[in-house]
Amino acid sequence: MITKYIRCEVPTANKAAFSKGQSLWKETAYSEGFISQLGGWNFSKDKSASNKAIILAHWQDMESIKNFMKLAHDPIAEKTNQVGSYTQISVSYLSAVMNIPASNQVHQHSVDSAFIRIADCYIAPDKADAFLLEQKMLWNPGMQQAKGMLGGQLCQFIDEEHHYLVISYWESEAAHRHYMAEYFPRLKQQAATDIIHTISGHQIQTEPSWRVTP
Questions:
Q1: Contact call for residues 98 and 135 (beta carbons, < 8 A)
Q2: Contact yes or no for 212/38 (Cβ under 8 A)
Q3: How many CB atoms lie within 10 A of CB 92?
Q4: Which of 10, 39, 47, 135 has the smallest set of CB atoms within 10 Å of its CB?
Q5: How much is the pLDDT for 50?
Q6: How crowded is residue 79: how many other Cβ atoms within 10 Å of its Cβ?
Q7: Which pLDDT does position 61 carry in this prediction?
Q8: In this predicted model, what pLDDT tens digit does every residue of 107-157 receive, in sequence order?
């Protein structure tokens, strides 16, 4: 699976127009190889919605994405009229490395999640194997214990060998907040301190109108 990771800076005055345009990407659902797309506004430090929009689009492979970009992307983009609504856009492609199991397997990787947590990690050059093992043996089981955790993915940037995203989907922001209070401190105490070189994060309140499924 390939994840297209899109970040846009949107002035406050343009957020309604951007959101309306984003809802028109539903035509993507008819493209071969498309799996799902969802996104929303990144939370700022005071827990209000910031001006950064984040979208995660999942595809079966790069060939499917290339075909979409060649055949369908531009006509849909023209309809959305989003170009003038944002001041900056960044697009990255990542390959799936590992699934993160959900607390309820029925909802694995659910696109119905109301909240997404993204941990953006740069790994020390000689610690990739340790990073993957710790994710599998410590963080995945730890998150799986938390009620309302709907699964996720560990993905690697295709053009950056030591750059990863840990994406987890949650039933609600409250479910993630409970995990951070009740489970995260214990897990962090057990985690190695020399694996991750730098880490930053995003907390995204998803917008239902941006959700796209086949």
A1: yes
A2: yes
A3: 16
A4: 47
A5: 84
A6: 12
A7: 97
A8: 555 778 999 999 999 998 899 999 999 999 999 999 999 999 999 999 999
Percentage above 70 pLDDT, the chain: 95
Q: Which residue has the tokens 């999942």?
A: 58
DSSP class of residue 41 equals: E
Give the three-state DSSP class for 207. coil
At residue 125, the 3 state secondary structure works out as coil
Average pLDDT over residues 174-201: 94
Cα 190 to Cα 85, 142, 144, 181: the distances in Å are: 44, 11, 16, 16
Length of the chain as a residue count: 214
Which residues are within 8 A (CB) of 44 and not within 5 positions of it... i.e. 6 or more apart?
50
| Residue 83 CB-density burial (10 A; 0-12 exposed, 13-18 middle, 19+ buried) | exposed
60 token code pair: 């079966």
Amino acid 89: pLDDT: 95
- Written as six digits, the tokens of 75 are 């006509």
| Distance between CA atoms of residues 118 and 170, nearest Å | 11
Which contacts of 123-128 are long-range, i.e. CB under 8 A and separated by 24 or more positions?
A: 123/162, 123/163, 123/164, 123/195, 123/196, 123/197, 124/162, 124/194, 124/195, 124/196, 124/197, 125/162, 127/194, 127/195, 127/196, 128/161, 128/162
Q: Give the least confident one: 42-46, 160-164, 204-208.
A: 42-46
Res 191: pLDDT: 94
Q: Identify any residues that bridge with 9 across adjacent strands, giving them in sequence order.
A: 52, 88
| Residue 180 neighbours by CB under 8 Å, 6+ apart | none
